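Agenda item 2: magnesium ion complex prediction
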Amino acid sequence: MKIEDVRSTAKAQRIAAHSHVKGLGLSANGTAAQMGGGLVGHEQAREAAGVVVELIKCKKMAGRALLITGGMGSGKTALALAIAQELGTKVPFCPMVGSEVYSSEVKKTEVLMEHFRRAIGLRIKENKEVFEGEVIELTPEETENPLGGYGKTISKVVIGLKTVRGTKQLKLDPTIYESLQKERVSVGDVIYIEANSGAVKRVGRSDVYATEFDLEAEEYVPLPKGDVHKKKEVVQDVTLHDLDVANARPQGGRDIMSMLNQMGKPTKTEITEKLRAEINKIVSGYIDQGVAELVPGVLFIDEVHLLDIECFAYLNRALESNLAPIVIFATNRGMTEVRGTDMRAPHGIPVDLLDRCMVIRTGPYTMEEIAVIIQIRAKVEGVVLKDNSVVTALADVAARTSLRYATQLLTPASILSGVKGQDHLTAEDVKEADSLFYDAKASARLLMESPSKYIS
Ligand SMILES: Nc1ncnc2c1ncn2[C@@H]1O[C@H](COP(=O)(O)OP(=O)(O)OP(=O)(O)O)[C@@H](O)[C@H]1O
Ligand SMILES: [Mg+2]
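Presented output:
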């Protein structure tokens, strides 16, 4: 029998167009090196984006808009995603495409409003009395069903919790046993139980068990410090949209905790303007009291020229409300018609909205920059480029067609080279792959040359 090694516990990630983008790649003083965070070139645009990130972090940017313009494939979407990476996971980032507003069921402005509220976070801090520790014992005690029959019911649960300080045995109500089962708590897990509500939260598995399996999807946490019974600060990050959805069918009271408790219960009711106003009022109240903190996030609208005049009018107003996120637009259009009108405007955006935007441009790349981007992409896609000639061949293709086309050729070309039994890509393979596919310009030229062959 052959015994095989478990190769790796790292998850294989799907490779997407922007998986190499890890951030803006700025130094501590905010200057951009030629290459950093997976981005190449565009130093000025990256530095400007860095300033925006700073403004967002110190909350001075709310209600403003940023517009990223530039040609096709010049890295606008990549730059916006880099901003998202820089902001981290605690700041909400809600991406959408202009065309998403068109639906036969929901109003355009309703879609925009929903995305606006998805981009505004709320951090709620609470001091809770909890029992926290590693589970060392979990025994449900059964009794005869008092209603007769053969079934047994759980009368109480005995649970032992251990921390660095010591251990404690608790006798719990049977309803808490249900929550324990729901969270799939077993011996060796670190959990906390809220003292007043009995809610159970599984934090992770105690790291004593970290070498239990070779391959798993567990989060290991250290043994909690302090006593088992203590006060603990619990931080929850939610967005206004989460609260809207959770309270679309009001059931509980109108305090922040019952609003939070509505979350996770599926309801499908329309979110009305009135409900939103009510939630805004409660949220503002809690912000004033210092219970909650507002975290304005980012709404990223790609291909913004697809929005129409009604959406733009709405955006003008929404940007000025006091609960507004930072809005980032991106477009590759030049002078064009504003959708829904016959008015021409730069980037297809009405001038009054344009006036509220700070604009960042992403220009074309130099040959050297193209070569570096191709090398980065090759590494991400696992394609081996051994010598310089193949990089030059790809860069030539990119200069003749587009950067995107050249990077998209990488994998087909590596399949061709694999068929030939090579372990790395050569300029020959690039040429062969290039001859198999048409880039946008070549395809358009072909159409122009033989229009009679196509229906038009
Ligand atoms: N400066 C850069 N550094 C590294 N990779 C880049 C850079 N700019 C663009 N790319 C990569 O090139 C590809 C095309 O860029 P991107 O999709 O951002 O273009 P875009 O400006 O959004 O184009 P479009 O207008 O067509 O939407 C992506 O895979 C992107 O990650
Ligand atoms: Mg794009």
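Discussion summary: The pocket of adenosine-5'-triphosphate (ligand 1) is lined by residues 17-18, 21, 38-42, 70, 72-78, 332, 373, 376, 403-404, 407 (CB under 6 Å).
Owner for follow-up: CH.
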